[in-house]
Structures are given as C-alpha cells and as structure tokens.
Amino acid sequence: MKITKSLIILLVLIAAALLPVLTEAYFISVAITILTFMTLAISWDMMLRTGQLSFGTAGFFGLGGYTGIIAVADFGVDPVMGIVLGGLLAGGVSLLLGMAILRLRGLYFAITTMALASVFMVIIRNLHRLTGGPGGKIVYTTLFNYDSTKVYWLMLGIAVGTIVVSELFQRSRIHFAIDAIRADETVAKSHGVNIYKYLIFVFVVTSIIQGVIGSTYALQYGFVYPESSFSAHYLLLPIAMALVGGIYTTLGPVLGAIILGLSSEYLKLIMPYGHLIIYGVIIVVVVLFMPNGVYGALKDLFGIRKRRLEER
User: Fold this and answer.
1) Closest by Cα among 310, 300, 261, 311 to 283
2) Closest by alpha carbon to 143, among 73, 87, 211?
C-alpha cells in the first residue's frame, strides 16, 4: 500500500513538472494561479488547526509583495532573493504581532487579524518615497523576465514545499500539540503543552509562506499597489478552497484549489458575465451538503466500500 501511494505521488509530481512542456501559455498561467491560491489555502488551514481563525492572509501576502518589489527596485536585489526577503519580513512582523495578538482568542483574534490588511495598506499608502503611495510601485527586473515556465516551476516548488511542511505538522509532535490546543486549551496546558509557543510558531511559519507567495506573485508581474496587493480576494478565495476541499487536512485545500480554480476558468469561458454567481452556488452547495469537504466525502465513501468488502 505504501509503495502504491509513493508511486502515485511520484507520478503526480512528474506530471506536474512536465506540464509546461505539454501545454500552452494559457494553461501554464492558470496552473500558476491555482498553485498560488493552493499554497495560501494550505497555509490558512495550518493556522486553523490550532483552533485560531486567522484572517491575516491578505495582509501578509501584500506585505511580502511590497517587500519583494522594494528590494528589487530600490536596492537592486535579485528577484529570487527578493522573494526570500518578502517571506522573512512577513515572518518577522508576524512574530512581533503574534506576541501581542496571540493572547487573544476566538472572535477577538479573528477581528484583529482581519484588520491587519487595512492597517498595512494605510501605512504603505502614506510612505510615498518608499512604496510609491496610492499609485503603487513598478519594477523593471521581473521574476525570470516574464518566463512563465520558470515561474511555474518555482511556484510548483513552493507549493510542494508547503505541502511537505503541512504534512510534517500532521506527522510530528506539533500535530498532537495543536490538536490538543484546538480541543481544549486548559487540558492541553495541564499536560505540559506550551500553548503560546506553539501558536506563535505556527503563526510565524504560515505568515512566512504567505509572504513568499505574495512576493513571488508581485515580482512575476512587476508591480504592486495597495488596493490590489491587500485585496480580500487573497483571503476569501483560499478560505473557500479549504472549506470546499476539507479543513484540518493537507489534501483538502489541494483538492479545493484544483476544483475551484479549474471551475472558475471554465465558467469564465462559457459565462463571462455570470460566472461568479454559479461559482458562489458551487461553494455554498459543497459546504452545505459536504460539511467535511470533498476530501472528507471521498474518505467516507471509500471507507464504506472498504467495510463492505471486508464484510464479504
């Protein structure tokens, strides 16, 4: 069974790596977009596993994007290094903020993190010399000089790396600690779990991922401006993907990103002016009738079939 599973994973990775060779530029662009939101969805779900509902995804995404653009435009840094700096700054800011806001719980934490994107945007709009103010900032040295194939491979590498980190969370001591925190903080604390330490660790790791994605996305196109970089689109769509695919898992957000990403593009082609309505209906139907997401429904289905075969 383990050999079969490893073989399937290997074949999927090979197929994903060969996608730019087998498809046209349009499909590569779609794949890059799906990988971008897939990574954001996984990072959001990783924080959710602690029992804390974070709405700071768009904030750290935009912060990473601005960091990458400023590093390349003003300091002549290589775009790849700009991506690294975007992740590091997002991680550093999240560490400082986490020391304060991770004392909050439930709705209070959610509202505070939701405000981060607006706070970052106001600050950036007023730093005209550094950020370009309301008009944004442009860089002429883009990531791989608009080579979509190389950008795709980089995004694939980031997505695979995020999946690996998520799986490490699921298969290590961190998994037991954050599960205990989500179930009951008092019980977890009585068993010696350092709640504050684990919450800060997960918050920083997920923020670094979001910052890396934000800087990669910004340097791919070569520009940033406040309303776009801190758009709620980078918060709501990853959440929808995680809910559709199935939360508290790694494969759930992956499936959700693929399903919603492909359906979005298809609906745009057949219904240019009404695709968002159908898109919304798909999300609502899945959430209502599949509370555990598509991945959870598939697990239940195969679990029932397996039990029936064992009974025979």
Assistant:
1) 261
2) 73
Q: Which residues pair with 76 in a beta bridge?
A: none
Q: In Å, how far are 9, 21, 54, 131 from 206, measured between CA atoms?
A: 24, 31, 10, 24
Write the pLDDT tens digit of every residue in 141-176: 889 988 999 999 999 999 999 999 999 988 888 888
Ordered by where they begin, the domains of the chain are: 2-311 (1.10.3470)
**How many CB atoms lie under 10 A from the CB of residue 149?**
13
pLDDT tens-digit readout, 258-276: 999 998 888 888 877 766 7
C-alpha 98/C-alpha 91 separation (Å) is: 10
Find, among 189, 187, 167, 299, the residue nearest to 246 by Cα.
299
Indicate yes or no: pTM above 0.85: yes
Place of tokens 């025979």: 312
* 57 contacts 235 by C-beta, under 8 angstroms: yes
How many Å apart are CA 210 and CA 40, to the nearest integer?
Answer: 6
Residue 100 near residue 112, CB atoms below 8 Å: no
Please name the residue that has the structure tokens 């046209």.
24
